[in-house]
Amino acid sequence: MTIQHDSSAGTEVVTSQQVSDAPQDKEGTTGVVQRIFKFTTDSFGPLIPLFAGSATIKALLAILLKFHAIDPKGGTYLILAAAGNAIFYFLPIFLGFTAAKALNANTFIGAAIGASLLEPNFTSLLLHGSRTSFIGIPVILANYSSTILPIFFAIPLFALVERQLNRFVPKDLKLFLVPMISLMIFVPLAAIVVGPFGTYAGKLVSDVISALFRANGLIAGGVLGAAWTFLTIVGLHIALIPIVIVDLAKGGDPLLATASAGVFAQIGFALGMLVRARNSELRSLAGASIVPGVLSGETRPILYGLFLPFYKRTFLYVALSGAAGGAIAGAAGVKMVSLAFPSFLSIPLFAPMVPYIIGMAVALVGTFALTLIFGYEKSPKKAI
Q1: What is residue 131's DSSP assignment?
Q2: pTM (2 d.p.)
Q3: At what angle do helices 255-276 and 241-249 cross, to 10 degrees?
């Protein structure tokens, strides 16, 4: 599933025809950026219907829970929750497949690289500490479920190496030797490189955000509201959760109270897409992604289904509106008093509530208005 311009409306629609939203430049920075964007689009595009369907299941469950129509510990709920959560939890596997396909590499090896990071023997290492070793090389352990960094790091390198292996490995040995070498190289490499990056980058983010809140709530709220979307995409938002839990034990947490603006800004973007889009498939995708965000704060369908694959330039809308909303909540000293994902249903868990509502409304309406006024993509160019 890719995107194509609608010249009559000046917008983009979702179609099955591969097009480019800018002239191809095979040399220089522009060409590299376009190839990265194309890789991102081709990797996420095939997963978009699955994001939408899974998000709808999660929204349905949130509604049933709200009206106490289902037992959250019962088999019915847990089985349906598994159906709705699978694409997100096992995202490294799905993304390993589609990313490898986008680079004309072996798709099943790509999926296996992602699956290896979720394999029970590997994940059980976390039960015994945060570090291990591989042939004497220190490995910092991390939870790779729902992440995209390991795949976006490992698969492009795997695609390059696989081409060379297919050239030099004897034909009679390719059947087992190419997959064996690929897995033996890139599973450890992903763990060795991405683990430390996530750990140290996450610690840096949490230290900076904590320092900002100690210095000035307005500035800290603005920074976190603007950055929350990007932090969520790369998985670094998880680094703030331990701080949130500690703050809650002390009476209230300002981090998620201001980060909520990023969530509401994302919902505003999807709402703008729903209203502005001319294509029924795109409207359906936007509508399906809004519901779980509104009910449970689950915005990954928006991020992975709309924002990241196709409409990256709208990050500015989300960042600006998120910064404004977060700054309002931060300046008013809003805190979350009980742990919950930011959503419409969790609004009563933030105090003082009035400035929180104002901040979130600014974030949502701001992104919605910017999307309507300025559109969500560049002016149409000739597809090639």
Answers
A1: E
A2: 0.74
A3: 130
